[in-house]
Amino acid sequence: MTDDRYAGLDQLGSKTDAPTRPEDARLERVENPASETDYLVRFAAPEFTSLCPVTGQPDFAHLVIDYAPDQWIVESKSLKLFLQSFRNHGAFHEACTLMIGQRIVDECAPKWLRIGGYWYPRGGIPIDVFAQWGEAPQGLWVPDQGVAPYRGRG
Where, by residue number, is the active site (predicted)? Predict the structure, then answer.
């Protein structure tokens, strides 16, 4: 890339292997092109996977991440690689969901962020995990996350 605003981005536009652990993943950020405007960014990861820390069996979730950026936006390729790094990571649903939200907050300092982790059943019980950092800016349009309660989710 020739634009100096993107000089610190190492993953975008490059062949980049997915990190094997979330702790090794680099979540990159880009200057918000409209920092004077309150708006919502949504990422949906309908095929998120991690491992049960006890059994080692795979767990599956549909993640929805909504945030109102301040000075920075999340660079999407780095987010994709960060999420992929959970494929061999053993942690409970709650820990994975909260770790992802906290990492985005730590790296990008949004005005507000919420994450919905809609986990597929384990032992016959779906576990959904929700967290929020801050309050949504006044007047921000925040649509429903659009993931129905589990009834054979599809």
Answer: 52 (thioimide intermediate), 59 (proton donor)
In a domain, 79, yes or no: yes
Is 96 a catalytic site residue? no
Residue 74 marked as a ligand binder: yes
Mind listing the pLDDT tens digit for each residue in 61-92? 999 999 999 999 999 999 999 999 999 999 99
Give the count of domains, the chain.
1
Residue 17 known to be catalytic: no
Name all contacts of 134-137 with Cβ < 8 Å and 24+ positions apart. Answer: 134/110, 136/68, 136/112, 137/38, 137/68, 137/111, 137/112
pLDDT band at 11 (very low <50, low <70, confident <90, very high): low
Q: Which pLDDT value is given to residue 19?
A: 84
